[in-house]
């Protein structure tokens, strides 16, 4: 089965992809990763088959681009004389310290947490996107939540600690 025209495909999935990238790489780098994601998708689009999971396909590409971005960022030198630019435009809801803590997670845990709690995907879908088992996706999300609780406890206080049942 042939996929829809690429313009229609972009319109259908751009908000979800951008929200994911905003949560994983931050407002400063989300635009670049967004462009890289859809450029890669455009290159592969002529050979893709619409098996009903184009959303999963594009989110897999976005996940890989976010991971690549994190790896590349670690290799770049950090200038010390320049002040960081402040973000403008679309921001995620919530406190910036929460999103900073999410971005500090290891790539697989960050992707699992964002896919599960920002995009509201099932663990089976996350496993397919991250090329791992459903159990590994669940474990990555659990470890990510645990690290977020530990990182945010000094900032948010002891009332932040919740049970896993409350998080779900």
Write structural notes for this entry.
This protein is mainly alpha-helical and 168 residues long. It has 2 domains: 1-82, Orthogonal Bundle (Rna Polymerase Sigma Factor, Chain: A), CATH 1.10.1740; 93-156, Arc Repressor Mutant, subunit A (Orthogonal Bundle), CATH 1.10.10. The chain is built from 8 helices and no strands. The chain has helices at residues 6-25, 30-44, 54-75, 96-104, 107-117, 123-130, 134-156, 164-167. Helix 1 packs across helix 3, helix 3 (54-75) crosses helix 6 (123-130) and helix 6 packs across helix 7. The longest helix is centred in the C-terminal third of the chain and has 23 residues, at 134-156. It is globular. The protein starts with 5 loop residues before the first helix and ends with a helix.
Under CATH, the topology of the largest domain can be stated as Rna Polymerase Sigma Factor, Chain: A
CATH level 1 class label of the largest domain = Mainly Alpha
CATH superfamily (homologous) name of the largest domain: RNA polymerase sigma factor, region 2, helix turn helix motif
What integer value in Å does the Rg equal? 17 Å
Which percent range fits the helix content?
A: 55-70%
List the helices and strands in order: HHHHHHHH
**In oligomeric terms, what are we looking at?**
single chain
- First CA to last CA: what distance? 36 Å
């Amino acid at each position: 089965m042939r996929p829809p025209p690429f313009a229609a495909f972009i319109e259908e999935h751009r908000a979800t992809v951008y929200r994911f990238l905003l949560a994983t790489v931050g407002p400063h780098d989300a635009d670049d990763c967004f462009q890289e994601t859809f450029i890669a998708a455009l290159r592969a689009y002529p050979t893709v088959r619409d098996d009903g999971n184009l959303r999963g396909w594009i989110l897999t590409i976005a996940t890989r681009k976010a991971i690549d971005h994190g790896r590349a960022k670690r290799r770049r030198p950090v200038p010390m004389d320049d002040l960081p630019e402040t973000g403008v435009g679309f921001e995620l809801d919530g406190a910036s310290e929460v999103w900073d803590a999410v971005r500090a997670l290891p790539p697989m845990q960050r992707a699992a947490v964002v896919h599960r709690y920002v995009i509201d995907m099932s663990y089976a879908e996350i496993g397919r996107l991250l090329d791992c088992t459903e159990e590994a996706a669940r474990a990555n999300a659990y470890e990510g939540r645990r690290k977020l609780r530990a990182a945010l406890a000094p900032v948010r206080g002891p009332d932040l600690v919740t049970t896993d049942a409350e998080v779900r």
